[in-house]
Amino acid sequence: MKATVLVRPKDGILDPQGQAVEDSLRKLGFSVGHARVGRLVELEVDAASEDEARAELDRMCRRLLANPLIESYEIELGRSSS
Amino acid sequence: MSASRPTVAVLVFPGSNDDRDAAWALSALGADPILVWHGEQELPRRTRAVVLPGGFSYGDYLRAGAIARFAPAVEAVRSFADEGGVVLGICNGFQVLCEAGLLPGALLPNASLSFVCRDVRLVVERSDTPFTSRCCAGDPITIPVKHGEGRFHYPVELLPELEERGQILLRYAPGDNPNGSTADVAAVISERGNVMGLMPHPEHAVDPLLGSGDGALILASVVDAARDRSLAPA
Q: What is the value of ipTM here, to two decimals?
């Protein structure tokens, strides 16, 4: 089953990368604000059901993919770019 | 023999690059350093202290230290720390210890987004620890940093508790914070007081010829603690 995990810097965490992106966009004339840069992990999970896949992905996020102190995560199933 | 030159294990991950500098400095300060590969399940039995060196373990992919924390040798270090063993994490070693949950907080990319490589002035907050016994509280010391991800983060609302428990061991001197760390924190210690992590590199400052000898205060304190452990009944 295809899955996508989005990992974001938590609210309130200074994100200098997001700020740099926002500054660049503004310099290009775009009217933007609050840019945040996170991470996207695409993967295939071996699971019998969506519930099982979601539970497994949740364990992956808590163990490795995200650091709960500084990052939040979101799991999407069956939506891969390819 | 081991009592006079206590064995200090220096972990080596793929991507470590300060392991030999740390071993050299520890040796110069009276220890018997031994390099321990990350795949080892156990530390050598005569280990009296452990150092996790600087570098870019496993390429620092995902987050600095995030993958190294699962190395078998880090599990051995966890057991060693659980038994009260003295563990020092330098730079990448600090990041690994935070990711492993052996130290509080997390280390984020520098606020400037630039890699910083320079001497920084630090203030020693406490001298009653195995890592700072050769220092005096309040003393300024100078040790170099070299990192891209050294911004110590800790939830602001919980910071007073961290301070009250005396877990902040070194701070960057006022105006000398190189990375945007919360409350100028440069080093923290575990609640029990036997695990420490710092972003500056004491192993690069053990001889005035190299710009500063202040790093020797930290490492020699660790060697003292390791020697005391050798003498203590098992």
A: 0.86
